[in-house]
Amino acid sequence: MIQTAENDAVRADSYLTLHYRVSLDVTAAGAAGTADGADRGDVVSTFGSKPATLQLGAGQLSPALEERLLGLPPGAHRVFELAADEAFGPRNPSLVQRLPRKVLEAESDRIDYVAGDVVEFNAPGGGRYAGVFRSLDSDYATFDFNHPLAGQPVRFEVEIIGIL
Question: What is the CATH number of domain 5-89+149-163?
Fold first, then answer.
């Protein structure tokens, strides 16, 4: 690929081909790890498989992750450590909600969920949104609508293959 001045570095509206990995610091999360804290769990990774193609600003990555890409040239390989609350925002307690059981029954064919299951709901206007099932009693189902990585430190590794 011939590089021109306009695609020498990642911009806020760039189309990119890249490998990336988002991983959790499982040691910081309280799990057993190595003495140097290097034990990490991948949440998503394209390394070792087909690279991703995405457009910055389209919501495919969180704004904090996109910000780390700005200014990187093709071929750059970087690792960024993002503090808890930074990559996917802080946890918002108001996003843990109790919904009437009848709402869950109207949205789903089943109610035999296990804590941690992701349940999708219809949104006004035809969209969809998801919540993580937490519990169910005779009248209410409790869901967490926070991003699953909200409030957690993450490691973001990226290799820029091309800027389109």
Answer: 3.10.50.40
pLDDT in tens, 112-164: 889 999 888 888 888 888 899 999 999 999 999 999 899 999 999 999 999 98
The CB-side HSE value for 38 (13 A sphere, CA atoms) comes to 3
Query: Which class in CATH covers the domain with range 93-144?
Result: mainly beta
Which residue, chain included where needed, has tokens 């029954």?
A: 105
Q: What is the DSSP string of 10-57?
A: --TT-EEEEEEEEEEETTTTTS---TTS--EEEEEE-TTSPPEEEETT
Answer whether 0.70 is exceeded by the pTM: yes
- Cα(105)–Cα(22) distance, integer angstroms: 34
Question: What's the full length of the chain, in residues?
Answer: 164
Question: Mind listing the pLDDT tens digit for each residue in 70-103?
Answer: 999 999 999 999 998 898 999 999 999 999 988 8
Q: What is the sign of the dihedral through the CA atoms of 111, 117, 122 and 123?
A: positive
Q: Where are the domains of the chain?
A: 5-89+149-163, 93-144
The conformational region for residue 59 under phi > 0 = left, psi -120 to 50 = alpha, else beta, is left
Beta strands in the chain (DSSP E): 15-25, 40-45, 52-55, 77-82, 96-100, 118-122, 128-136, 140-144, 154-163
